[in-house]
Design goal:
single chain; 2 helices; mainly beta
Length: 348
């Protein structure tokens, strides 16, 4: 059995076991964290995000600090409108907040937590050879009025996966990440019925990102490089209910709208009417918008500033945490992607 810190010591810069490194690993930026947007619908009102361990509600007009001790992946909008689920690592508790008020909380012991409105996935820090990290999937039970919460363990198991991205479905969670030996990026789908590997590709100093459009089982994935090193403009498509060999590889190299100075994909993607894929174009981050139906790039939007975490889809567009961590002095804060342009909303 290995402790996650042992794996970190063997050269893995962004492993998911040490809390400080986990935030960087998931966001490519140490102090920006947020709940994932993938597979979410349009939301209204306030939505949560975390900066320097502090939890905030954000609206286009205001911001409210809730508390500190929170981290990437462990914060999400609740099933009850206007409420937030947030796991506090120091206190080892899952809180159900209404504004600054603690409506309910339950004990939840873990090294890392991945939070959804209906499910919670936990991970411990010890690695067992030929098995991986222990994970537990919980379902969330809400009281009649939706204010109180309880957790029920519905699956326990192992996965050799340093999680780099995830999204929830109506039945469970899909996680992506690299193996301990740094040779493969894998995607696992976990439900009450068990765990299933649904995609696998070679790993080369990169992180696998997921984008899920709509309610279908189809998922898109791409690799985000660590250092903007040159890569092919490839995205993958697969069904989370099927085996890895069913995946389709889509190479955008022949697309007429692909910029000639494309370096690589870099950051986190999300879905609007298209797949929105952050890419390094001659060293600067732009959004490549890929039309799923037409199977081609529909537009390339400049001045994205880097997407380290999508926040929420609203009637105005998609809010995201923006920064290019490899460009010194780059703008950092909340930006809005309208579909045709990127607007700076709030600087940090």
């Amino acid at each position: 059995m290995y402790n996650l810190s042992d794996a970190t010591a063997k050269g893995r810069r962004y492993t998911a076991g040490c809390t400080k490194l986990a935030v960087f690993f998931l966001c490519c930026l140490p102090f920006f964290t947020a709940c994932p947007l993938n597979a979410s619908g349009v939301v209204s009102g306030a939505f949560p995000y975390v900066v320097n361990g502090k939890l905030y509600y954000f609206t286009p007009d205001s911001q409210q600090e809730i508390g500190e001790g929170y981290s990437q992946s462990a914060v999400t909008a609740s099933k009850k409108a206007g409420y937030v689920l947030a796991w506090n690592q120091k206190k080892q508790r899952l809180y159900h907040f209404a504004g600054q008020r603690n409506a309910s909380n339950v004990e939840l012991k873990a090294s890392l937590v991945y939070a959804g409105a209906e499910y919670i996935l936990t991970q411990t820090s010890s690695f067992t050879e030929n098995k991986g990290f222990p994970f537990t999937l919980y379902s969330i039970k809400y009281s009649m009025n939706g204010k109180k919460i309880k957790l029920r363990s519905i699956w326990n198991g192992y996965a050799d996966c340093f999680v780099s991205d995830f999204f929830f479905t109506g039945d469970g969670i899909c996680i992506a990440g690299g193996t301990r030996d740094d040779t493969k990026n894998n995607v696992f789908y976990i439900t009450e019925k068990g765990i299933h590997k649904c995609f696998s590709t070679e790993k080369d100093s990169d992180f696998l990102r997921l984008v899920k459009p709509g309610d279908s089982n189809n998922v898109f994935a791409f690799v985000s490089t660590r250092d903007k090193s040159e890569r092919a403009p490839v995205i993958y498509s697969f069904d989370i209910t099927k085996a890895p060999e069913q995946a389709v590889t889509i190479n955008l190299r022949g697309d007429s709208l692909l910029p000639a100075d494309f370096d690589c994909f870099f950051g986190y993607g999300f879905v609007t009417t298209t797949l929105v894929l952050p890419a390094s174009i001659n060293g600067t981050i732009q959004f490549i918008c890929y039309d799923i139906q037409k199977k081609k790039i529909s537009s390339v939007v400049q001045d994205a500033g880097g997407c380290v975490a999508p926040l929420a889809s609203t009637e105005d567009g998609t809010y995201y945490l923006a920064r290019d961590p490899l460009t010194e002095g780059s703008w950092s804060g909340i930006s809005l992607f309208t579909g045709t342009e990127c607007k700076k909303i709030k600087a940090f």
